[in-house]
Task: inverse folding
């Protein structure tokens, strides 16, 4: 098995007889009870962030529940030839209490062979159904709400099946439906704007933020993904992550060019003037946060400065 080392002492978990083909496997709750009552095999990531394993290591006539332990704020899980079930235990090295953390997952392209559940104290809530890779499949939930339980679905041929997903911890809040991060399709308050540009180094690591000054060049809509892409001309680059904004080609007036995403339902349209665009990285893509007109941001910044309430200092000219 690549990317994982078996726990000392070998596998100690409850073993399940394989049902006669092509009948259904044990219900996910029964597999989960196997862990609670009898333990499970443990898999440890070699880099503590990502794990890659194979169901072919199981004995041919048995099913198992494996334990996977990860300690990073972002990474990937890939399970080739899935059989039985996985419990993914995230133990991130963070200082924030778990009630302030949100966990998001995003299935990898072509992922198949297993259902992904949210599990807490034996109760399961389906997050991603096997093969359902449509738009919006990036569920998010409070870290306190439970962990991840991944159960292989009955297959006559697992030779081409791989279940995989990215995971990401953030300090942003999950929406009430467990399937989105809270989306600000509304004007941001003065406090929200100032906090978006004044973020501690630790929070920047956990929820990398962007903020730039610029104008909207164009907006394109992607109805299939329920997203809109905002193409920006950036005149001042305050902070960015992953080189979202690149220097403009020669002859195009200087500055930087780049794009940020937002929900289609926000109805963003091109507008004149300069804005302060704030946002965050989500699975490698820049997403829009707040976007006040720059002159409005200057006014709120000066007002907070006069009252001694500015959490940081930035150039506003």
Result:
């Amino acid at each position: 098995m690549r990317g994982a080392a078996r726990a000392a002492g070998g596998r100690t978990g409850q073993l399940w007889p394989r049902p006669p083909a092509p009948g259904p496997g044990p219900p996910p709750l029964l597999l989960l009870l196997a862990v609670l009552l009898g333990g499970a095999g443990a898999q440890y990531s070699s880099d503590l962030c990502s794990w890659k394993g194979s169901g072919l290591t199981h004995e041919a006539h048995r099913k198992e529940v494996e334990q996977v332990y990860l300690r990073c704020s972002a990474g990937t899980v890939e399970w080739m030839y899935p059989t039985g079930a996985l419990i993914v235990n995230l133990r991130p090295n963070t200082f924030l209490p778990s009630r302030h953390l949100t966990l998001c997952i995003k299935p990898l392209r072509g992922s198949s062979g297993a259902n992904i559940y949210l599990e807490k104290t034996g109760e399961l809530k389906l997050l991603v159904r096997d093969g359902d890779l449509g738009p919006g499949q990036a569920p998010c939930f409070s870290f306190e709400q439970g962990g991840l339980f991944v159960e292989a679905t009955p297959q006559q041929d697992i030779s081409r099946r791989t279940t995989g997903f990215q995971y990401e911890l953030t300090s942003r809040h999950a929406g009430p439906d467990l399937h989105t991060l809270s989306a600000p399709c509304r004007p941001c308050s003065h406090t929200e704007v100032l906090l978006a540009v004044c973020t501690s180094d630790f929070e920047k690591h956990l929820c990398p933020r962007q903020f730039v000054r610029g104008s909207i060049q164009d907006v394109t809509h992607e109805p299939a993904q329920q997203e809109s892409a905002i193409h920006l001309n950036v005149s001042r680059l305050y902070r960015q992550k992953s080189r979202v904004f690149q220097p403009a080609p020669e002859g195009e007036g200087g500055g930087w060019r780049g794009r940020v995403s937002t929900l289609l339902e926000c109805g963003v349209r091109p507008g004149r003037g300069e804005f302060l665009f704030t946002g965050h990285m989500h699975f490698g893509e820049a997403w829009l946060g707040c976007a006040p007109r720059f002159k409005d941001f200057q006014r709120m910044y000066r007002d907070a400065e006069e009252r001694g309430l500015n959490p940081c200092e930035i150039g506003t000219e």
About this structure: The chain has a mean pLDDT of 76. The chain has two domains: 50-170, 190-307. Residues 56 and 81 are 6 Å apart (CA to CA). The helical segments are 28-38, 190-197, 201-206, 294-306.
